Amino acid sequence: MSGAPLGDTMRITRFTVASVAAIAVLAGGSLSLAVHAQIRGAARAPAKPTRDPKAQALYDWANHLGMLRGVREVDAIATLELTATGTVTVMGQPCRLTEYRTSVNYQDGGQRILYTCTRPDSTIYKTGEVVAGKWAWDEDGPLGAGLVPGRGRALPMPNLLNERLIRLWSSPQGAVKAAVAGGAQTSVAVVAGKKVVTYPIPGVPTASAKATLTNGSPTGLCTSDCAERVEVRQGTTDVTEFLYTNYADYNPAENKLDAFYAGHMIEKHNGATVRDLTVKETQTANEYVVIPVPESVKTAGARQSAAR
Are the C-beta atoms of 264 and 246 separated by less than 8 Å? Predict the structure, then answer.
């Protein structure tokens, strides 16, 4: 699967705006209503506030990303596939990416990042970084490592669980989902004219995130109410920062969905840049993404718990 176009993966049946419109006509419904139900973000006039300030801020955030769908405007983004270029830091050195692919299942709290990169000395580094629920592991082979004999090993990485959960729930889509899930623990303030949403990171009790939202024109493409910076603190000295710009619909040209994602993403840890990514393509049409936890990872986790 490595290097394959996103469109070649297994997927749930998906509908473009044109498909929805055609179905509406065949069913005797309104064409304009069917199309309008899929219009989000910059293409949609801002609604009058009808909620309390926190609920309205979270609604506007998800709405400007194009995540709310249907008459009930529910969050319809369950999974994400993404490819990118750029650099990651490997053992303290910048590593130029030749392949980078992220697969996310938000409902199960799982993310798999597969990448290959070239170090300054021209050596190749390749790995898979995975998190699912309370488990974190690396994969040294293709999909199926640790699950299918001959496909490679799954190497437990419990010490990286918090880092990977923070990366998942601070992402452009993951952050608003985590903020909504935070319930009463989530708060909204206005600082220097910008909304700042404070929320807990799911699965990391020691981590607190602050998302600063854009405050430009409400009719621009994520020029307002989309995360431009997410800062996550664990204690007083451990700080992870995510910077997001260049929001656009990066879905394939034949399947634009008015679902927007940051095109440039920078991740810093305690001030040092550890990832600098430029998005090539996304799939927000709920591709089929599953991230099963290998038994070897679960067994290793149980042994560690028993040893404490």
Answer: yes
